[in-house]
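Thread: "does anyone have the structure for this chain?"

Original post by V.I.:
We have the sequence but no experimental structure in hand. Need at least a predicted one for the grant figures.
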Amino acid sequence: MDVSQPVKTLAWEFQMKDEMVRYFQAEKAESALFLLAAAAAIAISLVLINSASEYRWTAAPLLAIALVQLVVGGAVLLRTNRQVENLTAQLDSDPQDYRSQELARMDTVARNFRLYKGIEIALLAIGVILTYALRDRMTWYAVGTGCIAQSALMLVFDLVAEHRADLYVEHIRRLVPMA
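Reply from O.Q.:
Generated one for you, tokens below.
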């Protein structure tokens, strides 16, 4: 069977539900990792801020990006169960509507990933530039190391999430409701 072609079976709709649940379970798991990363960044930042370490300015980007991780991770965890319930009901009642609306939503998700990756790569580059160009100015060097650490971690998280979203979209595209 050519998996790139739509399939018209009830079994495919059941498989679509499984794929949807799997996708959102992974989203929740990654959101929990966002929250753990934020907690670790905050803990490290508190230690650095309260120390005499010349790396204490590493805390600035660690904390700034930890706030993003807290907001994004928390928001995804809080909304996901309700989102899955609504999407499951929509898939049961109107698979074609589910398909068109979810593809439109995931198109926005894909655009957002491109934006996030651009920001993360820019912050990573800024961090690298700071650590090379200003390595004799410890404050900026420390800020650079914090930028590198957090932006690299966020970039990895978003690359994984983007790939997962691409797979989910392929399943949605192949969904054709039974006539």
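V.I.: this helps a lot. The chain has a mean pLDDT of 91.
O.Q.: and The radius of gyration is 21 Å.
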